[in-house]
Design brief:
By secondary structure, the chain is mostly beta strands. It contains no helices and ten strands. The chain starts with a strand and ends with a strand.
């Protein structure tokens, strides 16, 4: 059974940093393109960062230059380094495969990120 477990969220002041982790179990993780999705209060989810199986990355305009997505295939873990956090970054962040054919039906609980002074 494939499971997704996000961690690393918390409360941070504007300009601060957090590193989110996503542990993926029971999957062929190394072969998947993976992404981080954000769900802002009262808004639909948004794909903010993508990393392919080969390590190529891409980002939404809202986070480009401040967030960095990475993966450790040996640990079956996905990361999101979040720098220069802004109040607008406040959201619940989820991980999952990017391609629909690999998408895990049961999403994790997500990591709550709150940016406030």
């Amino acid at each position: 059974q494939v499971q997704l477990v996000e961690s690393g969220g918390g409360l941070v002041q504007p300009g601060g940093s957090l590193r989110l982790s996503c542990a993926v179990s029971g999957s062929i993780f190394s072969m998947w393109s993976m992404g981080w999705y954000s769900q802002h209060p009262g808004k639909q989810g948004e794909l903010v960062a993508v990393i392919t199986s080969g390590g190529s990355t891409n980002y939404a305009d809202s986070v480009r230059g401040r967030f960095t997505i990475s993966r450790d295939n040996a640990k079956n873990t996905l990361y999101l380094q979040m720098n220069g956090l802004r109040p607008k970054s406040t959201a619940v962040y989820y991980c999952n495969a990017v391609w629909s054919s690999n998408r895990i039906d049961r999403w994790g609980q997500g990591a709550q990120v709150t940016v406030s002074s």
